[in-house]
Structure formats: structure tokens, C-alpha cells
Amino acid sequence: MSSAALMPARQRWSVRDVFQWGSYLQYPALLVALGYMAKSAWSIAAVSTASWSPVYDDWNYALLYAGVGIGLSSLQDPTRTQNEMSRRVWQDPRKGRWMLALLAFYSFGAMAGGLAGAYLADTTAVNQLSLGLVAFGLGMIGLLKTAIEMREHHRLDKQSASSSEGSRA
Hints:
Helices cover 79% and strands 0% of the residues. The protein contains 8 helices and no strands. Mean pLDDT is 85; it is low at 164-169. It has helices at residues 3-6, 15-22, 26-45, 53-73, 84-91, 93-120, 124-154, 156-168. By secondary structure, the chain is mainly alpha-helical. The radius of gyration is 22 Å and the shape is globular.
């Protein structure tokens, strides 16, 4: 008996698995964004002795890293939910529709506000904040796409309709 016969076969990684693992990079990016927000709070406390420029820079970086982190979350597997509350939202057609509308409002609002701010900006700080807001909105659009797929996979009313059609065949 050869030693190759005793070793278990290696499970091959699918592309979906690689993307699922890549989606965990959202957490370091969101922690960096949180760090920049904490740093900006510290800068606001010291603003009487300095200018607002460091605060604007921190907000810009926080928006940028939050957008990247939220965009990376769109790499997750839409057939799985992260927690019980998420599962309940996506299974209910009404709650899912409201959540998609809210995500769409946030993502398109952030992008529209950022693009308008970049166009109308008089100062470099406002321009930079606007571009950070655009990056945040782009990340939210990725999240919206994943949310649409999650809703399609988890809706109970669609699953019961498709299973009853399958039983008629």
C-alpha cells in the first residue's frame, strides 16, 4: 500500500472561497477608518491651537478606508448571511425591500454629494473630503450589489414558490 493512498485528498479552493477569504480584509480597513475617526476627535479637541486642516485630512482618510472596507465586504458569499438579524431581514420581502432602498439612498446620496462637492469646492480640503465621500459611495454600491444578491438567495416567498413549482413537475 502506497503512502499516497493513506493521505486524504486535498480540497481545491474555488474562486468563491478565495473571494470569501478576501472579504475578511474589510475588517482591517474598517479598523483603520475607525482609527482615523478617533484621531480626528483628538484633533478637534486641539483645534483651538491649530487649524482644521488635520481634521479634514483625517475625515478624508476615514471616508476613503471606510469605502474600501465596505467595498471589500461585497466579496462575501451572498448565499450565506452573517448573523440572525441579517437572515431575518433578507428572508422578509418587505424588510429586504426597505433595506435595499436605504442602501441605495446612502450609496447614491454619498456619490452625488461627493461629486457635487468636488465640482463646487472652493478649497482643497472640501475637494478632498468630497473625493473621500465618492470613494465611500462607490464602496456602498458594491455593498448594494451584494445585498441584492443576498435578498434573491434568502427570500422565503420566492423559495416557497420555486419549490412548489418543482413539485408540480
